[in-house]
């Protein structure tokens, strides 16, 4: 907890955040009212209490460096706890997902479940004594070159309903942005008639499990890892799933010859050029999965690792959706032309009614909305 320091008093505490100014309930961005509460932080300010933020805080702590973590949600690992579906397992083997200084506990399976990963992150925070400042959304961070400090402004929501929100400005020499690439759901823009559709429409960030869709006709928009897995989950729960495939994509098996495809790629890339590794991956994929193009999933000409390196787009690791596509239990449909009141019209002109549409259209970072570089200099 911050210690308090009256103006004109001795230097701030070297190890704990110190309140420099108690604040008058005003606007830290310079609006009307009094000055905001102002807190001096002796170490870095870390924004985000997900795996990246927790790992940073733990590594700093191990070197004796204090830090202050700010988290907009009411818990650590909020993206995993609140914005993932129940059937989710790590896509990558646990050795690639564990955080520094603390392996997964003995007995953890090679691909931990969502709940196991959350429990691991909770334990990690506890073991390293990381106590984030919760319900504290950073809505502005800017470097003040005149004093050599970051000014990080937080709207604190102590009541959880926004009613008691107050502003605090944290001052620190260092800022660590750990808010992830998945901070906000991305929705498709400019699709005609989206407002007129009367069925259930949701993003995969709110999807929990398929049983509420039993017997329903559901359209999944998007065919990345989330789109494939949600389609599979719907199918396993008795829903009729159709999946929109608009672009070419690489679907790879999760494992090749008993080794994780990701691990194998990392190993081969140490010795071979990326183009050759891509050719090998696609050769084995063809043997294991067959020709995906035949089932409406055309492959790009460029290999999966080259695409990942140049655009950041991750290939799909199949965990069971492909056999359902082959058997027709998951129907592949083309891009949407427009929404109708009860469903959609596709670009090939055919129309279909759907009880629900689930947007597996990805996420985006929220950093551009709050990180301002050097506006005081
Ligand atoms: C469906 C799905 C499956 C995935 N599977 C895997 C996998 O198998 N293996 C893997 O390694 N990765 C996987 N990922 C990627 C996963 O997001 C990352 O591995 C990991 O969660 C990223 O950690 P992070 O700390 O960078 O971001 P996050 O976990 O997203 O944490 C960011 C934190 O910052 C907080 N925050 C955001 N904005 C603000 C703000 N303005 N102020 C304060 N706090 C803020 C958020 O509430 C959140 O708690 C998957 C992602 C998805 C969506």
Automatic annotation (TrEMBL):
Alphabetical keyword list: FAD, Flavoprotein, Monooxygenase, Oxidoreductase
Source organism, top-level taxon: Eukaryota
Record GO terms (molecular function): flavin adenine dinucleotide binding; indole-3-pyruvate monooxygenase activity; N,N-dimethylaniline monooxygenase activity; NADP binding
Annotated catalysed reactions: indole-3-pyruvate + NADPH + O2 + H(+) = (indol-3-yl)acetate + CO2 + NADP(+) + H2O
Co-factor requirement: FAD
Region: Disordered, residue numbers: 1-36
Keyword Manganese attributed: no
Pfam families, sorted: FMO-like
UniProt-listed Enzyme Commission number(s): 1.-.-.-
Root EC class: oxidoreductase
Biased composition (Basic and acidic residues): 1-17
Biased composition (Gly residues): 22-34
Family: Belongs to the FMO family.
Name of this chain's protein: Flavin-containing monooxygenase
Protein species of origin: Zea mays
């Amino acid at each position: 907890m911050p210690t308090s320091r009256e103006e004109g008093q001795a230097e701030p505490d070297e190890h704990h955040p110190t309140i420099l100014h108690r604040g008058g309930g005003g606007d830290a961005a310079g609006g009307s009212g009094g000055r905001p509460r102002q807190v001096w932080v002796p170490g870095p300010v870390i924004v985000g209490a997900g795996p990246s933020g927790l790992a940073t805080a733990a590594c700093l702590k191990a070197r004796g460096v204090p830090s202050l973590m700010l988290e907009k949600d009411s818990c650590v690992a909020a993206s995993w706890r609140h914005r993932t579906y129940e059937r989710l397992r790590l896509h990558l083997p646990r050795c690639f997902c564990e955080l520094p200084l603390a392996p997964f506990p003995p007995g953890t399976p090679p691909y931990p479940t969502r709940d196991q990963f959350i429990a691991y992150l909770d334990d990690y925070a506890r073991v390293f004594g990381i106590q984030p400042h919760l319900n504290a959304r950073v809505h502005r961070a800017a470097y003040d070159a005149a004093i050599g400090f970051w000014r990080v402004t937080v709207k604190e929501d102590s009541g959880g309903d926004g009613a008691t929100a107050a502003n605090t400005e944290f001052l620190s020499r260092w800022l660590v942005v750990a808010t992830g690439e998945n901070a906000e759901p991305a929705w498709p823009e400019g699709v005609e008639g989206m407002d007129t559709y009367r069925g259930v429409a949701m993003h995969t960030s709110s999807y929990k499990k398929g049983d509420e869709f039993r017997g329903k006709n559901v359209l999944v928009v998007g065919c990345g890892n989330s789109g494939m897995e949600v389609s599979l989950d719907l199918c396993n729960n008795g829903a009729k799933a159709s999946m929109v495939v608009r672009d070419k994509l690489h679907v790879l098996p999760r494992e090749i010859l008993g080794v994780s495809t990701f691990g194998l790629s990392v190993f081969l890339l140490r010795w071979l050029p990326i183009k050759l590794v891509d050719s090998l991956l696609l050769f084995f994929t063809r043997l294991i999965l067959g020709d995906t193009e035949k089932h409406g999933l055309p492959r790009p000409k460029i290999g999966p690792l080259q695409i990942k390196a140049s655009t950041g787009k991750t290939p799909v690791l199949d965990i069971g959706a492909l056999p359902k596509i082959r058997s027709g239990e998951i129907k592949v449909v083309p891009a949407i032309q427009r929404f109708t009141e009860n469903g959609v019209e596709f670009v090939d002109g055919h129309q279909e009614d759907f009880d629900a549409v689930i947007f597996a259209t990805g996420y985006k970072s929220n950093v551009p909305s709050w990180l301002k570089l050097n506006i005081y200099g």
